# Entry
Amino acid sequence: MPDPRSYMIEERLRSAKRILVVSSGKGGVGKSLVASLVASVLAREGKRVGLLDLDFTSPSTHVVLGAGDARLTEDRGIVPAHVQGLEYVSIVSYSHDDPLPLRGADISNALIELLAVTRWPDVDYLIIDMPPGTGDAMLDLVRLLKRVEFIIVTTPSPLAFETVKKVVTLLSEMKVPIAGMIENMKVKGSRFIEEQAVILRVPYWGALPYDTQIEDSLGSVSKLLRTSFGKELREMVLLRLR
# Structure
C-alpha cells in the first residue's frame, strides 16, 4: 500500500515553482556552501526562496548561514524559520549537535516525514541540500518529487569525478533533469571537468576558485558573497537561473 504521506508531500510542495536539488558524488566538495549561496543570491535578487537541508550525514548549511539558533514553529505542520531572507528548514533543528545514526529504512522515513510535515509558503525556488552519493535519500527524493532538477557539484579531482559520473549516469537513466554542473576549488587551468561535462551532456556552469577567505566568512552571507568564490557563484546564478 502506498505511503499516504506521499500525497501530502505533493500538496506541501505545490507552492514551489522550481525545485533545485544540490548534490555531489562525495562529501567535502563544497556542496552545502554552494546550496546556501545559490539560495542567498536568488533571495537578494528579490526571489522568494526556501532552503531545505536534508544532508543527514553532515548538515552544515546552518554554519554557512550563521543559523545555529534558527527555530521552527508548528501550525498545522512545521513552519520554516526566517533566516537571511530565506525560508529555512534543517535537519539540525531536530538533531541539534548530535549525530544522526540513521540507516536504510530510517533514512527514508525521516526524509518522507520531514517533507510531509513542512508547510512551505509560496516560493519561486526551493533549494534542497542532499547527502552526497546515490543512496536512499536521493532515490527517495526522485521518487517522491516529480519536478526536481539537479545541480551537481564536483572538484577538479579525477577521483572525485569518478563518483560524480555515477550520480549523473543514474539521474540520466531515471530521466531526471540536470540543470548544470559546478566545478569547485579550481586552482589550475585544466579543462578536465568541463570536457567531461560535455561528454556526459550536462551543462557546465563554470568553475569556482579555491578561496582562502571562505573559512573566515562563514556565518555571514554578506561576507561570503564578497569573496571571489561568492562573486563567481553569483554570476553563474544570475546567468543560469534568472
